[in-house]
Amino acid sequence: MGVRLAGVRKSYRRREVLAGIDLELAPGRPVVVVGGNGTGKSTLLRVAAGASAATAGSVTGRPGAVGFVPGRVPASTRMPARAYLWHMAAVHGTRHDPTALLDDLGFSGDLDAPVARLSTGNVQKILLAQALGCGAGLVVLDEPWSGLDAAAAAALDRLLVEAASTTALLVADHTGRAAALPGAAVFRIVAGVLAEAVDLPGAVHTVVELRCPGDPAELLRVLPGVRESWLGAGSLTVRVPVERGDGLLAAALARGCSVLAVRRDGARP
Ligand SMILES: Nc1ncnc2c1ncn2[C@@H]1O[C@H](COP(=O)(O)OP(=O)(O)OP(=O)(O)O)[C@@H](O)[C@H]1O
């Protein structure tokens, strides 16, 4: 059994960032979250990893040890790198040598220097080593390729392919590398909920301009297949894969929208 997020919501003050996330994380099906800045990727990852509490909903089946690379460097990294790795290994309750992955990743810094004084790429390698080297049942990685040189990035590709078959994996990534993992399911967060898998390059889309009653964010949660949306003066424009166009139109009409324009948008690069 994997890790299950059900109806997960997260608000900061009155702003709801996650508005009902349902997600299953299990070995063999790495889940990749892509999308624009501020859509809630890091928030979702923190909640899944147990680093932040959901406002509502549940996360069940989370294993005792979670390997987590946060989007921001944690304060504990004032510790020397070696001490930090052993500290994290103790936190994870593992007997694995936490420095073992550093060679694979091409770590070139001083293990006795405080993590915070290492170069950006070497800090990232320390964070990856503690997350991937502890035998965790769940690994959550926020932009794991960030700051890595080409050799380290390729090494991480290999490590993740290996990890994904035995470990539940949740990755936020804008480089496109995680989406290439075998069996990857790719999602976007649209209006606080997970939207369907992102299309492969070359997919043909329909763009529909609508005038709709009510809250557009609320509507976007129920319109099927939306890949992108734009708010105009009194209109909402959405892009859907061409095969989802009819379903989108039917759902929009059922919600009282009128259709202002429909165009075929051709292949995207
Ligand atoms: N601790 C916090 N307190 C208040 N607001 C927060 C906090 N963390 C995130 N937010 C807000 O929640 C929203 C989602 O942020 P989040 O970092 O999850 O987005 P993201 O998709 O990971 O963005 P990016 O691609 O820029 O990293 C943003 O509007 C952000 O300002």
TrEMBL record:
PROSITE patterns: ABC_TRANSPORTER_2. GO terms for molecular function: ATP binding. Residues 3-216 form the ABC transporter domain. Keywords: ATP-binding, Nucleotide-binding, Transport. InterPro entries: AAA+_ATPase (IPR003593), ABC_transporter-like_ATP-bd (IPR003439), ABC_Transporter_VariousFunc (IPR051782), P-loop_NTPase (IPR027417). SUPFAM superfamilies: P-loop containing nucleoside triphosphate hydrolases. Signal peptide: none annotated. This is ABC transporter ATP-binding protein. It comes from Pseudonocardia adelaidensis.
